[in-house]
Design a protein that fits this description.
Blueprint: E1 11-16, E2 19-24, H1 30-44, E3 52-56, H2 64-78, E4 82-86, H3 92-104, E5 114-117, E6 125-128, E7 132-135, E8 143-146, E9 150-156, E10 159-162, E11 172-177, E12 181-184, E13 187-190, E14 201-206, E15 209-214, H4 215-218
Parallel strand pairs: 2-3, 3-4, 5-7, 6-8, 7-9, 8-10, 9-11, 10-12
Antiparallel strand pairs: 1-2, 11-14, 12-13, 14-15
């Protein structure tokens, strides 16, 4: 398997019934969202006149100001008929889990996380059954293995195997991501071993491929409505 870059689109459009639904990334600047929406609606032509438009921000925050500003823009520019906001509804089972976690809080939760401080040097091997956090660097020639996620608060230059043996939902995150090899579950990605970017990056499995993204831009957990146990 190999790395690929996954660019997140700030605006997506789909037709729903007799209306249109725009999915927006509320973390993006309004001007960028307005420009992208404008390009899409220009291609629709007369189909926008008196159309019903739903703006989906993708999370449970209403983002009322964003919806109001986009409503004014769409009505003034494209003569749409009605604009409203929308956000996902929680399923009863998820709501029960959320209420349970709120009542339990995190006070008495026993974690299986192994946290180490310092440099993992060449020839050293660290292996843990669940999650692994390293407050430091992982040198070339070092090997770190975890049954869950791997978080490196420094430079990752060695070999990192997360989600072992078969957890394909695990991630590998590093502030400086330049491993020689990564593996998540059974999926392998060959790294360059050289420094590439100046931001934290995260590796995860997507469609059978190890994907590496800028962590802040990808924001893989940003749409979770409340904290979940990993």
């Amino acid at each position: 398997m190999k790395y690929k870059t996954n660019e997140m689109l700030p605006v997506r459009l789909k037709g729903v019934g007799d209306g249109l639904t725009i999915t927006l990334d509320p973390l993006q600047p309004f001007e960028l969202l307005r420009q992208n929406v404008g390009k899409i609606f220009e291609r629709l032509g007369h189909l926008t006149i008196n159309a019903k438009v739903v703006i989906d921000t993708g999370d449970e925050d209403a983002h009322e100001e964003l919806v109001r500003n986009m409503e004014k823009y769409l009505k003034d520019t494209f003569s749409v008929g009605h604009v409203s906001g929308s956000f996902p509804k929680r399923s009863p089972s998820k709501e029960r889990i959320r209420q349970r976690d709120i009542k339990r809080s995190w006070e008495h939760y026993n974690s299986d996380v192994l946290m180490l401080a310092g440099r993992v040097r060449s020839g050293q091997k660290v292996n843990t059954k669940k999650h692994l956090i390293i407050m430091g660097d992982v040198n070339p020639g070092a090997e770190i293995i975890a049954g869950g996620d791997i978080l490196v608060m420094g430079r990752l230059s060695g070999t990192a195997l997360a989600g072992q043996p078969d957890n394909e939902e695990a991630i590998i995150l590093a502030l400086d991501f330049c491993p020689s090899l990564v593996q998540i579950g059974s999926f392998v990605g060959a790294g360059s071993g050289t420094y590439q970017r100046e931001s934290a990056e995260v590796a995860r499995v997507e469609n059978g491929v190890v994907v590496v993204d800028d962590y802040l831009k990808a924001n893989p957990f940003g749409r979770l409505p409340w904290p979940e146990i990993r």
